[in-house]
């Protein structure tokens, strides 16, 4: 498929392991099962499902691993997807108090952890990236959040846009990812999901499959 062919969207996905108060993180299970689930279901046209990784629920101490993972998206860029489409990082995180899905519009350059992360780090009002300056600095996704929410709502999912990804590890990873995306001319999106007790595993798997379909369709 040369440059004349239809453009391809490659989506790389991350979830998180357990953390304080959440002994079973639904996003770990979703991400571990996603490739098999999508193989059975059939990938939407124009979509390539790239790497699927589960991250340590940690901030500063896990940055080297995070960048190793983020780098995967651009390492294969020249070989597989050179000049033929878009690369998206899709990060999934759990919001244990949520009753519906939330598509996060932005991340803030502030780490204020309500409890220590899995490496024992508990920053208060610290910048995520010191060289980015103020902790009030915001980075926004370049993906059309309202269109994505609209598409998923039409499919019957209870989903909302959000401007607040918290100040814990989810926001920390999203901020780094948005910065990385901007520097590498790719895109990044963070989605908060509820616990499986609130929305069952099968529905959440279907939701992520539908989200991939929406991301693969031209906006």
From TrEMBL:
GO terms for cellular component: cytosol. Signal peptide: none annotated. One of its GO terms (biological process) is proteolysis. It comes from the Eukaryota. One of its GO terms (molecular function) is pyroglutamyl-peptidase activity. SUPFAM superfamilies: Pyrrolidone carboxyl peptidase (pyroglutamate aminopeptidase). This is Pyrrolidone-carboxylate peptidase. Belongs to the peptidase C15 family. Transmembrane segments: none annotated. Gene3D superfamilies: Peptidase C15, pyroglutamyl peptidase I-like. It comes from Musa balbisiana. InterPro entries: Peptidase_C15, Peptidase_C15-like, Peptidase_C15-like_sf. Keywords: Cytoplasm, Hydrolase, Protease, Thiol protease.
């Amino acid at each position: 498929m040369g440059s004349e062919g239809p453009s391809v969207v490659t989506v790389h996905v991350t979830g998180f392991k357990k953390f304080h108060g959440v002994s079973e993180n639904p996003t770990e299970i979703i991400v571990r099962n996603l490739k098999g689930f999508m193989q059975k279901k059939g990938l939407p046209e124009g979509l390539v499902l790239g790497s699927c990784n589960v991250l340590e629920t940690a901030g500063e101490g896990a940055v080297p691993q995070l960048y190793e993972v983020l780098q995967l998206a651009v390492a294969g860029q020249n070989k597989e997807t050179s000049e033929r489409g878009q690369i998206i990082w899709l990060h999934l995180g759990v919001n244990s108090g949520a009753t519906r899905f939330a598509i996060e519009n932005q991340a803030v350059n502030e780490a204020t952890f309500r409890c220590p992360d899995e490496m024992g780090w508990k920053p208060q009002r610290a910048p995520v990236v010191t060289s980015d300056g103020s902790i009030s600095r915001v980075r926004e996704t370049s993906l059309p959040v309202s269109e994505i929410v609209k598409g998923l709502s039409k499919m019957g999912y209870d989903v909302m846009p959000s401007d607040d990804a918290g100040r814990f590890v989810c926001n920390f990873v999203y901020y780094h990812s948005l910065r990385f995306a901007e520097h590498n001319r790719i895109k990044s999106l963070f989605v908060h999901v509820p616990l499986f007790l609130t929305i069952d595993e099968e529905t959440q798997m279907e939701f992520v499959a539908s989200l991939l379909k929406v991301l693969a369709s031209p906006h």
